[in-house]
Design brief:
This protein is an alpha/beta fold and about 220 residues long. About 40% of the residues lie in helices and about 20% in strands.
Length: about 220
């Protein structure tokens, strides 16, 4: 995959963004050292972006589909208001072992609930309404996750979907891999869904923000 943003520009942006806490720096190093595909971690720039969304919205109930090592959940937790909480779900027991260890070592242990198992099964047991939903999991299920969470989204809630530019592969018609095809289909479906308004951003690997459509658009 190619970089969406010039790495020099991204490094400059990261250098001029409030840095992560020492615990998150340690978690990033542990993710790099002990887990496969460490690039799945959102990184400090996107992490701070997610935290800022949570803070600006005053989001009290956050759902995360795709915990991985817990980096994004811990970043978002710093933006929660008093009484706010995050439910984060994932299938990978190895990654979740790292996530649980770092969540327990953080000031946010009582605010982050980690659920292990298929996300769609977890979602069936959750009522919402969710103020913010962050989707960063298996790409072939993106449409299914979207369909499952949209009815449970708060009136002024936001769905945040990661990797929607997929290293630029969505522009390559010769790339017919399952993940690329799934993301391409997701992007087309959301952009034509008259129930919502969306904006696709060139942050890291592409982030799409989705909200319910109001009467005036």
């Amino acid at each position: 995959m190619t970089e969406i943003v010039d790495p020099v520009v991204e490094s400059y942006a990261e250098a001029h963004t409030t840095p992560p806490s020492p615990l998150l720096v340690e978690l990033a190093a542990e993710t790099e050292r002990s887990l496969e595909l460490p690039r799945m971690m959102v990184g400090p720039l996107e992490g701070r972006f997610l935290e800022t969304l949570v803070f600006a919205m005053g989001a009290r109930l956050v759902l995360e589909i795709g915990t991985f090592s817990g980096y994004s959940a811990l970043f978002m937790a710093t933006g929660l208001p008093p009484g706010g909480r995050i439910v984060s779900c994932d299938l990978d027991p190895t990654a979740l072992a790292v996530a649980r260890r770092f969540v327990e070592a953080s000031p946010h242990a009582k605010r982050i609930e980690i659920r292990e198992g298929p996300a769609l099964e977890t979602l069936a047991d959750l009522d919402g309404p969710f103020d913010l939903v962050f989707i960063d999991a298996d790409k072939t299920n993106y449409v299914n996750y979207y369909d499952a969470v949209l009815p449970k989204l708060a009136e002024r809630g936001l769905i945040v979907v990661d990797n929607t530019l997929w290293g630029g592969a969505v522009l390559d018609d010769t790339d017919q891999s399952a993940d690329t095809v799934a993301i391409r289909a997701f992007n087309e479906m959301v952009s034509h869904d008259d129930r919502v308004v969306c904006v696709q951003l060139t942050i890291r690997d592409g982030v799409t923000l989705i909200r319910r459509r109001t009467g005036d658009g």
